[in-house]
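New to this. Help decode the following:
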Amino acid sequence: MNPDLACFISPHGYGHATRTIALLQAVQGIIPNLTARLFTVAPPALFEQTGLSLAFNPVAADVGLVQTDAFTADQDQTVARLADLLPFRQTLVDTCVDQCRSCRLILCDISSLGIEVGRAAGIPSVLVENFTWDWIYERLDPPVGALIRFAEILRNSYLRADYRIQTEPLCNPVDCDLRCGPIARRPLLPRDEIRQKLGCADRKIVLITLGGIPLALPFMEQLSSYGDYLFVVAGQSGSHRASANLCLLDRSTPLHHPDLINGADLVLCKSGYSTIAEVQQTGTPICCISRNNFAESAVLDRYVVDAMNGTILDQDQFFRGDWLAELPELLQRRRTPAPVNGADQAASFIASLL
């Protein structure tokens, strides 16, 4: 296989991988025989339902923030891993260059390694972002002085990208080649079919999704008092029906996450890009849990309220289960789905480069 694209994908959470998937699928709609080589340690299971012709290179192309759970970053571990990665070793760049020789374009979300490989190989690079790591590191509260050096390295690298696509919800508007709407994967199943698979009967489905990181949820015992609802908790360490109205789904469940969103009557999620983008496409009511010390959270929270008619919880409200008493009102906040998927806008631009 001689790939058209090389994709360098941050393994931070799942959002960068799922955004790349959405973009690749949209490009494939324009270039049916599209092939791509992925440089990432994001879980391969994320890519299994794409229908794309992909080759994998398990390269740690980025660090981002090392997280202990969906709401907490380990700053010491982040600094340690960045020190191992940056500046990029020439042997790492050279190895990636050899594996990209036949590619015509390098896509970076938001790993700057691909930009450096593109410069060394003479292959154009495209940075896709709604934030960059230098922006994040410089806004941690409290500040982490050890990260400033890495922020400067990354900022200089991002500026060397040949093309730049910025997507809403956008944290730091700069000059770019394309600004587009949220890039989201599409549902694969009709709403009724995914609801049947979940066995919801006549219940309303409340999907709780925290980005694939298992987390103890202290309000679990309260859920049995809300028998009119089926609570589906994604990203757990195993799939099973815990009770009549509680379904736990493994991180590697074959159920497509956009299908779960499309089938739900309410989505509770952390303030993360990919879930917000996918909810924007379906019109499902959303209740977003703000994340302290994550600079992008304030931007995403504003977007949820202003563009999606959604509501915001702080972490204490979420973990106490305060929102349970508000379920009837939260479910009334359905809206019209987004008329445009940013994936199509960005794909047209990528296809023109190819």
Observations:
- The chain has a mean pLDDT of 92.
- The first strand starts at residue 5 and ends at 9.
- Residues 65 and 78 are 6 Å apart (CA to CA).
- Residues 15-30 form the longest helix (16 residues).
